[in-house]
Design goal:
The chain has one helix and 24 strands. By secondary structure, it is mainly β. The termini are far apart. The relative contact order is 0.17.
């Protein structure tokens, strides 16, 4: 039986506009839109709350002026000896130092010495048998950026070991007394000394305590410097002077009028243990700002 088309039936006209509209509607539905150009009702997601991480811990290098930890090498009766311990005793006689090239002379105490080495080979300004020395009060240039050492700690290039800036013609007499493990207490004859090095404290500090360092920079002119902004602090214990560099690169040198009675909170970078160190014990402090630059 042949299929008879009803008179009332008319096939729908399919136009390009209708096809386009249908395709757009399907695409919008898949995309989460209810109609062309209209966003579907979606739940409003609030932005994540800001989290205040607080101050960032920064590496710091510190040398203390009293009872420092030191490493010394000397000739024992049967060969080389190298020990590390707390310097508990040293002769009061000053070390007589000379600056090669200029001939400028100065005295220094043992607690002012950062490194001292016997001259094994002659060099300009340092004859064989003399000693080269660096002091904690030696100028630290701005180029002495603190960097990461091979052991993972932070070592200032300005504080890195090398040929000293001072010459010591001969060692004084007397003994250096060290206390440490496993040897207990040991008196090292100074004439047998080959090297002497003050060991720094390397840790992290979140922020320096609040307080004001007062320096006399001119006769009758004092400046008040916020300790919290200090990046570099060097104190000459013998002359009671200090060099202070702030975060904005301003540097002040003067006689110490007043130091705040505060302690610096330190965190060990490996064990995460904490300790505090009175500011009055610190001879040199170099703090590393963000981005690894001092300024």
């Amino acid at each position: 039986m042949a299929f008879m088309r009803s008179k009332s039936y008319r096939p729908a006209r399919v136009t390009t506009a209708r096809v386009t509209t249908a395709l757009m509607a399907g695409s919008l539905a898949l995309a989460g839109l209810s109609a062309p150009g209209v966003l579907a009702q979606q739940p409003v997601v609030p932005p994540p709350a800001e989290v205040d991480l607080g101050p960032i811990a920064r590496p710091v290098t510190i040398y203390v002026g009293d009872r420092p930890q030191v490493t010394v090498s000397f000739l024992g009766d049967h060969g080389l000896v190298r020990i590390t311990g707390t310097l508990t005793g040293a002769p009061s006689e000053a070390l007589k130092l000379t600056e090669p090239g200029t001939g400028r002379a100065r005295d220094a105490a043992w607690n002012e010495v950062r490194i001292l080495n016997a001259q094994q080979f002659p060099a300009e300004g340092f004859p064989l048998g003399s000693f080269s020395a660096n002091l904690l009060t030696d100028a630290v240039p701005a180029s002495g950026i603190t960097s990461v050492s091979s052991s993972g700690g932070y070592v200032s290039r300005a504080l890195d070991s090398g040929r000293g800036s001072w010459r010591l013609a001969e060692l004084p007499t007397g003994d250096l007394t060290l206390t440490g493990a496993p040897y207990g207490t040991l008196k090292v004859p100074i004439p047998r000394l080959l090297s002497f090095q003050a060991d720094p404290i390397r840790a992290s500090v979140t922020e320096l305590p609040k307080g004001i360092i007062q320096l006399q920079v001119l006769n009758g002119v004092n400046v008040s410097l916020p300790l919290a902004d200090v990046q570099l602090y060097q104190r000459d214990l013998r002359n009671n002077t200090a060099v202070v560099t702030l975060a904005d690169e301003q540097t002040f040198t003067g006689k110490v009028v007043q130091l705040p009675k505060v302690s610096v909170a330190l965190t060990d970078q490996n064990s995460r243990s904490t300790a505090s160190l009175p500011l009055e014990r610190i001879a040199l402090l170099e703090r590393v700002p963000p981005a690894g630059r001092r300024f």
